[in-house]
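Module 6 notes. Inverse folding takes a fixed backbone as the condition and produces residue identities as the prediction. Think of it as a translation problem where the source language is geometry and the target language is the twenty amino acids. Below is one complete input and output pair. Work through it position by position during the lab.
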């Protein structure tokens, strides 16, 4: 896990990489590389190297990323990105019998949106989303809403659905739970979602002057799906 021995997470990782047929392509925004408490390295440590490939960047075109372009054109490739055009992953998994490839964008919501809409390759795969059935356990980082998940959590839920194996989710979430426990024991605070803070009058930062951002915060308070 590359962490100091005092807070080593290796005992919480699977002894052997999980055997999965689904291959993940993690499209990581460059800003995520410098974050101390990242979840993608933990995800990669749970899976075989050939089942979790990480590409770092903002712009991805066919000339520079021919392998990714081929993957995006494959009819079995899915991209996990919520929206009006996205199908619930459970429905897709029921119909799918062949090994799939899934693309997940790693970054803040604004970074992920920028990557998704400014790279035409990512509009080629079938767009899927997860049902908001669980709350994030990544409590040491603030999420926009109560149902927003970290990249590792998204991957854990998605893989358990695609592989039809609930234990995969539990195995991948285990090191994340340990990470949060260690951090809380060493002075970190539990971070409630922005939605929770706004609804309970606990948001202590200045309200944004940008009308679009202010409107988004009003929607959160009024429980409107964004």
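Target side of the pair, the amino acids:
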């Amino acid at each position: 896990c590359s962490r100091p021995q005092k807070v080593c997470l290796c005992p919480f990782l699977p002894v052997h990489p999980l055997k999965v047929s689904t291959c993940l392509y993690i499209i990581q925004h460059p800003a995520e590389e410098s974050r101390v408490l990242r979840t993608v390295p933990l995800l990669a440590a749970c899976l075989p190297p050939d089942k979790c490939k990480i590409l770092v960047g903002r712009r991805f075109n066919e000339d520079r990323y021919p392998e990714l372009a081929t993957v995006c054109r494959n009819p079995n490739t899915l991209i996990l990105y919520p929206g009006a055009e996205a199908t619930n992953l459970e429905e897709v998994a029921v119909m799918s019998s062949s090994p799939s490839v899934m693309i997940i964008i790693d970054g803040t919501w604004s970074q992920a949106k920028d990557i998704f809409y400014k790279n035409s390759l990512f509009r080629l795969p079938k767009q899927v989303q997860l049902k908001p059935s669980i709350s994030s356990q990544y409590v040491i980082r603030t999420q926009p809403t109560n149902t927003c998940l970290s990249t590792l959590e998204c991957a854990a839920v998605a893989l358990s659905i695609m592989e039809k194996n609930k234990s995969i989710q539990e195995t991948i979430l285990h090191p994340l739970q340990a990470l949060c426990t260690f951090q809380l024991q060493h002075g970190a605070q539990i971070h409630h979602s922005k939605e929770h803070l706004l609804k309970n009058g606990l948001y202590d930062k200045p309200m944004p002057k940008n009308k679009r951002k202010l409107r988004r915060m009003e929607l959160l308070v009024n429980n409107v799906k964004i």
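Reference fact for the lab report: The first helix runs from residue 30 to 33.
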